[in-house]
Amino acid sequence: MKTHRTQVLIVGAGPSGLLLGQLLHRAGIDSLIVERASATHVRQRIRAGVLEPGTVALLEEAGVADRLHREGLLHHGIELMVDGCRHRIDLQALVGRSVTVYGQTELTRDLMEARAASGRPCWYDAQQVHLDTWDGSEVRARCEVEGVTREIVADFVAGCDGYHGICRASVPAEALRCYEKVYPFGWLGLLSDTPPVSHELIYGRHERGFSLCSMRSPTRSRYYLQVPLSEQVHHWNDQRFWQELRCRMDPATAEQLVTGPALEMSIAPLRSFVAEPMRFGRLFLAGDAAHIVPPTGAKGLNLAASDIRYLSQALIEFYSGGPPTGLDHYSSRCLARIWKAERFSWWMTTLLHGFDHEPPIQHKLQRAELDYLLSSEAAQRVLAENYVGLPI
Ligand code: APR
Ligand code: PHB
After folding, report:
1. Alpha-carbon distance 292 to 303, whole Å?
2. How far apart are CA 160 and CA 143, in angstroms?
3. Helix crossing, 377-387 with 325-352: angle to 10°?
4. pLDDT by residue (tens digit) across 325-343?
5. Helices then strands (H, E): number in the chain?
6. Of all helices (H) and strands (E), which one includes residue 242?
């Protein structure tokens, strides 16, 4: 069996794995990325795209922010559309920071190009990835590439393989504590080559359910509708989607909406999930492998980036001959930030969605929360502070 030796084995070539590989490469540390899917599949996945300033700073540090600065859209505010009225939350005025809208698909492309340019290996279509040991003095793993079994020996392994990956699943159940909440609805998303209805994102609360008007560029829009968990995407067509979206908008916004053929339509469930701890010997979990947030508030990618900041710093410190303090504190540092983002994503989800099966008091409390938010600058500052991202 052929053995490949590296310093850090990275499982998964999503944003977490690719960004970690790039930051390590810049510090002269070798890594091998093994990815189950094909490069084409990874490149084409459609996901959110709101970047906190801290995430942008990390991408700059990684040397992958040039196109982001050219093509990303700086958003100084967001809007809340509540029962037919639009209210602007001025992020810049409230907390002095803004967010950057740049599709995760674009970011993934930039990171994949940087990986190819680094000359370091990334094995796509790697099957049967298996971790044999991560507790002793080294990591041993195996996978199949083009029908050939390869053995991998590394100092550390980073589990960046998402919610359904094998790294978290390799840890004995008794060593993990998982916290989970599944929401009773999903988001039906539509991507279209139409100009966005507004130059900023609009999060909508309506008695028919939540809606979100987002974008990828000045000519490409992304819209979402809250739908019951039982809903199936083949029950929807473009016309039904646009009609329902209009129903959840105020008349002036509905009037401005430009519709067009869907490039993609899909339903995503909403989940809050955290696995603790995030370190097991030489195995470190990062990104969606360790935690999931519901997409309201767009924290998923940003949390993955802050995990990777802590992990890359800790590994760089270790390889510079310093004490392994960063590695020892990795899990607690990540989790402190993760739980705050989990709280915020849960709060924003609870604030803006319809919960038909909850008792009437829940509806009254939600209404009071919305009224308070829309009338209190202090409450809006709390929203803004969390939306642009808490300190890393
Ligand atoms: N072996 C190798 N690779 C695997 C395996 C496996 N057994 N299982 C999953 N993978 C790969 C997936 O194919 C995927 O490319 O791991 C990658 C995980 O990527 P993401 O799911 O994108 O997770 P992450 O990189 O942590 O990104 C977090 O991106 O996905 C969004 O909502 C998420 O915004 C968040 C951010
Ligand atoms: C998106 O554009 O896909 C998006 C934006 C903001 C969110 C969630 C998703 O909160």
Report:
1. 9
2. 16
3. 130
4. 999 999 999 999 999 999 9
5. 13, 19
6. helix 238-247
Pure H helices in 2-103: 15-26, 39-44, 53-61, 66-71, 91-95
Exposed, middle or buried: residue 137 (CB in 10 Å: 0-12, 13-18, 19+)?
Answer: exposed
Residue 203 is among the residues annotated as catalytic for this protein: yes
3-state secondary structure of 320: coil
Question: What are the beta bridge partners of residue 149?
Answer: 144
- Contacts of residue 288, defined as CB under 8 A and 6 or more positions apart, other chains included, come to 14, 16, 162, 163, 300, 304
Q: Ligand 1 test: best mutation among 22, 33, 36, 150, most atoms within 8 Å of CB?
A: 36
Q: Identify the pLDDT of residue 49.
A: 87
Give mean pLDDT, residues 255-271.
Answer: 97
> What pLDDT sits at residue 48?
83
The answer to whether 145 and 129 are in contact (CB under 8 A) is no
Annotated catalytic residue, options 15, 299, 310, 353:
299
Length of the chain: 392
| CA distance linking residue 238 with residue 243, whole number of Å | 9
